[in-house]
Amino acid sequence: MRTIILLVLAAVISSNTAFAQPDIDYTVPLKSEYLQSQENIQVYLPKSYHQSDKKYPVLYILDGQWYFLNGVAIQETLRGDGLMPEMIVIGVDYKSRAYHDSLHFNHWAALSNYIEEELIEFVDQNYRTNNERIVFGWENPSYMVCEFLFQEKPTFSGFISSNGGYVNDEMLEAFNAYHGKQLYLFVANSRKDIYTVNSSNELAETLRTNTPDQLTWHYELFNEETHESLAYTSLYQGLRYYYHNYSSKVFSDAKEFFDEGGIEALEKYFQERSERFGTDPAIDASTKNSLIWLAWRTDDFRSFKYFMEEFDDVLSTRRYASAYWQNRLGQFYLKSVVSDKR
Fold it and tell me: What angle do CA 160, 281, 49 make, to 5 degrees?
């Protein structure tokens, strides 16, 4: 009987542990009419997926056989810090270098159609997705990422092009007919990538002289990286760039807050954040707390007094509602009063 009880407990613990973990499937089959083959994708579902009915944005990783787990790890760590929302991650598995090269050199158009039409449709039909999609491509797929962007009806909203990329006049003309929501492009390369850096440079130069209205973009060189090592860095930085205004607003000191425009600029940040991501347009508690903490930590009583008056609800937030913090803030007031009298 004791053995049976232990086995049951172990099963329950194992079940609860598994339930709390993200859901990862490395072999989801998908038949492609365009490629005339049985393809494979990798799927990551966030921890809350089976505990809610909400819809999630999707990160598509081209060359999932190499970078799928990088995307999962980055998404988990950034989301854990509140820097981005929970996402579904899809790895497009090209199986091997030989198959990768065969697809890109011999079946480019079919591969592009497979991703934009068959894969996206499959993901949207089988998982709870919203209309926010980000695509990442390194080396050869980086050029395909640009083709996904520069067309009349882009199917993604965020584009990360690492170690390559291009645009021509025909592509720009097609994209100029697009009048939807703002799209985001992050291009990354390194001077040490002697194979592809010129392509990225030319793409950036073209966009500098002719940036479409509906595109927000950034090009960055990571010159400590090489052709082989840049993918992880560019994926991380690309996601940070796309979600640059998703998190709470962070300042290094009170001076930076006032230099950037003070309360008016801060309210604008949260309003734009709300319009883009559907979040609360009010300044959040984390930002209020950090500004008060900065002023307290640096003995900046003038800014401290300003923030306490501006954020008059702050003592009810989780951090400052405690007797511990209210005592510390009270001591700071007393210290400032004594200092002023001197």
Answer: 55
Half-sphere exposure (Cβ direction) of 338: Cα atoms closer than 13 Å: 6
| One-character DSSP codes across 1-54 | -HHHHHHHHHHHHHHHHHHHSPEEEEEEEEEETTTTEEEEEEEEE-TTGGG---
Query: How far is CA 63 from its chain centroid?
Result: 18
Asked if residues 221 and 193 have their Cβ atoms less than 8 Å apart, the reply is no
The 8-class DSSP code of residue 316 comes to: G
What does the domain layout of the chain look like in residue ranges?
21-242, 254-341
Cα-to-chain-centroid distance, residue 77? 11
Q: What is the token pair recorded at 31?
A: 């038949």
Q: Please, what CATH class does the domain formed by 21-242 belong to?
A: alpha beta
* Angle of helix 323-341 versus helix 285-297 axis, rounded to 10: 40
Residues 266 and 257: their CA atoms lie apart, in Å, by 8
What one-character-per-residue DSSP string does 132-185 give? EEEEEEESHHHHHHHHHHSSSS-S-SEEEEES-----HHHHHHHTT--SS-EEE
DSSP 271-307: HHHHHHH----SPPHHHHHHHHHHHHHTT-HHHHHHH
* List of the chain residues with pLDDT < 70: 1-21, 80-81, 336-342
How far is 121 from 114, CA to CA, in rounded Å? 10
Q: What is the pLDDT of residue 8?
A: 36
Task: For residue 313, give every residue at least 6 positions away whose Cβ sits within 8 Å of its Cβ, in sequence order, or none.
Answer: none
Closest CA to 144 of 115, 176, 169: 115
